[in-house]
Structure formats: structure tokens, C-alpha cells
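YM 10:42: Transcriptional regulator, LysR family sequence, as discussed on the call
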Amino acid sequence: MSRYNISLDSYKIFCTVAKYNSITKAAEELFVTQPTISMAIKALEEKLGCILFIRYPKGVRLTSEGEIFYSYLSKAMILIDTAEQKYEELIHLDSGEVNIGASDSIISGFLLPYLDKYNDLHSKIKIKVINRTTKETLELLKKGVIDLGFVNLPIPLDENIDIIKSIPIHDCLVFGTKFKELFNGEFDIKTLEMYPLLMLEKSSNTRNLLDQYAKKNNLTLTPTIELDSTDLLIKFAKINLGVAFVIMEFVEPMVDNETVFARNLLPAIPHRAIGMVKLKNIPLSHAANAFVDLVLSPDNL
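YM 10:58: structure's back
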């Protein structure tokens, strides 16, 4: 409500009458009766304490006060109409933006088909993806830079973060033809010391979890090469630079058992998951909700 306790409808009626210089045409456009228009204009003039229109037998004309009032109010009404139009576009996903944070391995191994499908379904929505570690993704989420994060679980308990969905994943070892003997029989974690290891950098959540797994088995993992990309780990393993820890679900298409092989360790690496996370008690935009719905309904892919 305005300082004069004047409704938006009253302003809309005034602007429509001023636009046509006619109560009759304003009534036709607004689908109301002429007496309704006349009463609304009279009530508006009484609240403002001035005459806005001079009445003629064949129409009306703005007074000088009415001209000034209309010059400002008409611009405001255009902005209101634009705001309503943009809001409608957001609701119907004809515009908007979704901001997502995730590591490169989660992006390439999990998110790509969802991003592809989302872009196909909602081509007018701008998709922004920020490539960060799990820890950095959570920080971006708490700062409001991203709408959704996809992170390696577990993560520290945080009362401000909701885990919307958990997607199970499994860690394994991959290697090339030089280490093919690993494919023939059981492979105990103790024998890892015999092979050059390829691992993600210590800044990653995956690396920290693998280090904890090794520590529980009285072993310290000392990689020959540390990388920040799962794709590079696979490529390095394929050319026999070492044995790489990767997520099975992310590399299955590349494990052909001819040039790239995969094995599980004994004892088994604890199963874990990817979490789709958002800020608790903060509603998502329509664009972000549509992405959540797509991930929650993988049959849509």
C-alpha cells in the first residue's frame, strides 16, 4: 500500500484513463463498468487532494497536476508489468539461472548427463557450474554463491546444510596392461607399497577418506603422482604410469579389460556416497528446483 493508502488497482485505472483520455475505453480495456472507473477516479482525487482530470462531454483530459502524476506513475506501472512478466517467465522456466558447485570428477562422472538433459528441457535457463573441491563447494554454498552443491560424503555436520539426496559410489583401483597381473587374483592393500600410486591431491575429500582407510589398515599411502583430476588419473593409469584410485561408477565406460582394468581392494574400501546439498530453510529458485527434480528422477534421462 502507498503512503496515501491507495491500491495498485486505483493507479492502474488512473493510468488507463490517462492513456486513452477516455473513461469508456478504459472500462473496455479493464473489463469493468464506466461507473466503476468514474468512482475510482473520484476516490483517487479525494485521497490525493487534487483534480486529476478535466471532464468533457466526449472524454477527459489530464490537469497539470495529473500530467505530472501520470509522467511518474506510468513509468512505475511499466516496471510493475515487467516485474510480473519476468516472474511469470521464471515460474514457467522461460528465464532464470541455476548455479551448481562440484568437483571435476563429480561433474564428469555424474553430472554431465543431467546438465545435458536439463539444458535440453530448459534451454532458456542459464546454467553456471563452478568446479571446486567438496570443502570449497560447501563454502560457496554457505556464501550463497551457488544454489546446489554436489559433494563427496561424509561431510562435517552443519545445521545450515541439507543433504537432499545421497548417491552411492564405490572406490576401486584401475591400471593398464603393465600391471595386468593385478587382475588375476586377490589384491591386498599391503601389496600397494609394491606399485607406483596415482592419487588425487590432499585437498580433495576423496583423498582424505582414502588416507583414513589406509591408516585404519596400518598403511600410509605415498603416491608417486598427485593430480587434481580423475580424468587425468585414468589417462596416467592407461599409459602404465601407476595404479590409480578412482570411483568405479565414474570410470566404468573406460574399463575395457584390454587397455584399462579395475580391481577392488581387500579389505574393501568402505562404500560412500555423493550428496546433493542446499542451504537449510532457504527456498530454491524455480530453476534450481527443476534441476533437483531431474536428479531425483533419473528415469527422465
